[in-house]
């Protein structure tokens, strides 16, 4: 058995921030999950629908691995990424750092992991690996998935080799903190402004505050959009509230990030943004509850109300980001 020593196997709410936390704590840098998410300019929004999809997808963060790249750039971290089509090379990319005493991040499809509670293909899942033996790999996943967990090496290989939406070619990565790292406090304002600019100026109408406004128009028709509303609508709500988002489609995490920043920086713009995101987080949870109720009851009135709240959310989040852009 090969194990990296002194690993803090704390699982958090979101997969990529959980993994970043494991890798950075091993390097001596311990940041809260909201701070990891916020410094990565992680908050976003996307309404994704197409003819080939069974049901629309609502996303609340930047695309997979962009969060990791953003954090490394913000803090001046050394990010080493391995990608390959060769399973043999892919295993070497993981085993070599672990053998040398360093945990590794992996992007893979959660469907194949032995311990995963919900068997749904998701190729953007990220875990930290800190050990292995002849049969199993030892991982850190989110707290809801068990924190410190294990899966068979065969299952891990299948998860890493899967191809489809959001997958990567056996992607693995390590992080190193330089001898004179950038202070996280110094990067708070640039990270917030980067996030705000992207949210306020989306290139297409499916993203940012425009995406939320578009969702408000489409949600009232979701009973007709679905072939199986009792299945599709509660699942959509579950993805918003519990599928590694920290609740409220990542708005809880960003609210808490802004609260942590407000303790470091005296700014009325920051306090305004925090207050509005606190309001937004509560409303997103209400939307999820209404979508669930619509699926279970078949009553479109719930979706009409959800659409009205989403229209308000588009305004609230736009106002929040406009305030934050003035930092």
TrEMBL record:
Signal peptide: none annotated. InterPro entries: BtrH_N (IPR026935), DUF4872 (IPR032369). Residues 14-142 form the Butirosin biosynthesis protein H N-terminal domain. Residues 155-324 form the DUF4872 domain. Coiled coil: none annotated. Pfam families: BtrH_N (PF14399), DUF4872 (PF16169). This is Lantibiotic ABC transporter. It comes from Streptomyces umbrinus. The lineage of its organism: Bacteria, Bacillati, Actinomycetota, Actinomycetes, Kitasatosporales.
């Amino acid at each position: 058995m090969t194990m990296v020593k002194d690993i803090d196997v704390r699982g958090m709410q979101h997969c990529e921030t959980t993994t970043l936390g494991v890798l950075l704590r091993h390097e001596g840098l311990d940041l809260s999950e909201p701070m990891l998410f916020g410094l990565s300019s992680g908050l976003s929004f996307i309404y994704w629908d197409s003819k080939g999809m069974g049901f629309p997808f609502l996303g609340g963060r930047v695309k997979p691995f962009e969060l990791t790249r953003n954090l490394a750039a913000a803090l001046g971290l050394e990010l080493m990424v391995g990608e390959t089509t060769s399973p043999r090379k892919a295993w070497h990319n993981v085993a070599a750092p672990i053998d040398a005493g360093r945990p590794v991040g992996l992007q893979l499809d959660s469907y194949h992991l032995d311990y995963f509670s919900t068997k749904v293909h998701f190729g953007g899942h990220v875990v930290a690996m800190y050990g292995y033996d002849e049969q199993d790999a030892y991982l850190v996943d989110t707290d809801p998935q068990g924190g410190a967990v294990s899966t068979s090496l065969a299952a891990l290989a299948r998860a890493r080799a899967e191809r489809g939406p959001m997958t990567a070619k056996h992607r693995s990565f390590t992080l190193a903190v330089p001898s004179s790292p950038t202070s996280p406090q110094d990067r708070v304002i640039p990270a917030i402004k980067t996030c705000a600019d992207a949210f306020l100026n989306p290139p297409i109408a499916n993203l940012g505050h425009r995406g939320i406004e578009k969702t408000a128009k489409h949600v009232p028709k979701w009973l007709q959009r679905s072939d199986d509303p009792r299945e599709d609508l509660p699942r959509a709500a579950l993805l918003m509230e519990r599928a590694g988002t920290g609740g409220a489609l990542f708005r809880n995490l960003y609210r808490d990030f802004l609260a942590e920043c407000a303790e470091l920086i005296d700014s009325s713009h920051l306090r305004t943004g925090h207050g509005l995101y606190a309001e937004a987080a509560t409303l997103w949870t209400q939307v999820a509850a209404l979508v669930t109720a619509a699926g279970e009851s078949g009553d479109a009135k719930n979706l009409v109300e959800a659409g009205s709240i989403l229209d308000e959310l588009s305004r609230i989040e736009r106002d929040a980001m406009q305030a934050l852009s003035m930092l």
